[in-house]
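Hypothesis: this fold can be encoded by more than one sequence.
Test: take the structure tokens below, design a sequence, compare later.
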């Protein structure tokens, strides 16, 4: 019996599906028990893990969609991706203004 081989595209889709699953589980957990962890290091780490998993789960399909569009949509995709990543990073910093 021949071995079934996976392509690179299948492996990437599996990663996207896994990250979507992790983002859903962590987001559901933080929505349910968010009050217990608000302001703590554990709460911030769980929030960051959920944001990164969500980023991976939406970035690959959005990139594949934008590749088939005009240049302006690809530029919008990259700008939105950079803003999301900066929001995740800056959201973890403790910045007090005022």
């Amino acid at each position: 019996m021949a071995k079934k081989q996976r392509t690179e595209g299948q492996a990437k889709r599996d990663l996207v599906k896994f990250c979507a699953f992790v983002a859903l589980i962590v987001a559901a957990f933080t929505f349910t028990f968010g009050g217990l962890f608000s302001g703590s290091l554990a709460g911030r780490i769980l929030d960051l893990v959920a944001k990164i998993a969500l980023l991976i789960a939406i970035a690959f399909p959005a990139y594949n969609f934008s590749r088939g569009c005009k240049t302006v949509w690809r530029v919008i995709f990259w700008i939105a991706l950079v803003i999301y990543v900066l929001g995740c990073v800056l959201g973890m910093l403790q910045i007090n203004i005022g």
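The chain has a mean pLDDT of 78. The chain has three helices and no strands.
Hypothesis status: open.
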